[in-house]
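[Automated response] Your request has been received and processed.

Submitted sequence:
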Amino acid sequence: MAVNKSTFKDYAMSHIFNGMIDGTYRPGDQLNESILAGELEISRAPIREALRELVGSGLVEYRPRVGHFIAIMSKQEVIDTYIARGILEGAAAAQSMDQLTKEDIVALEIMPSKMEELSRKGMLKPLIELGNKFHELLFEKCKNTQIVTFTKQLSLKSDLLFYEYIGTLYTPGEIKERHMAIVDCIKLGDSGQLEKLTRAHYTESGRKIAALIN
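Generated structure:
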């Protein structure tokens, strides 16, 4: 596969992340730079960059003089991850709310019904991708770049957990209702309530996922 050099790091990150999703890489597995470079037919430098970023996202653990390993997350770490994402995204969404256009709000209104339909059909990957678009639209216009950066970092970690457990967390109707509640809050223009609702949105999911972990 031909890959533009400027995207080598992102290519490596995507490969590792997708491997976590499909079970190729399981919690506790070691990631070998040389093997990854050979599989992707790229040098080890972008592999190292990708691993550093994944360590920063909490998905990979670095052990000095030993190497990189897929992180094993405890129940409390799962809860903490979702609480932190809720706090950050809630703040970002509240700051972004006044920047949303009418077209943005229409797009947000349409998505919950599509999410419900995808859930009913068992199309979990497209469902999560659409959910990501929904949430990115909520916070991407926040002018505080630090909040946006940290929110995106946490999104990788929370998305990985969501991929594994979404099928048992919420019914299709609940998925629609949870996201429509956020849209309704935006339409009312209540940024304070939007921040609280976003926090609760993630806290609930984190606790549900933690309860399913053995």
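Summary generated for your ticket: The chain has nine helices and three strands. Residues 1-5 have pLDDT under 50 and may be disordered.
If you did not submit this request, please reply to this message.
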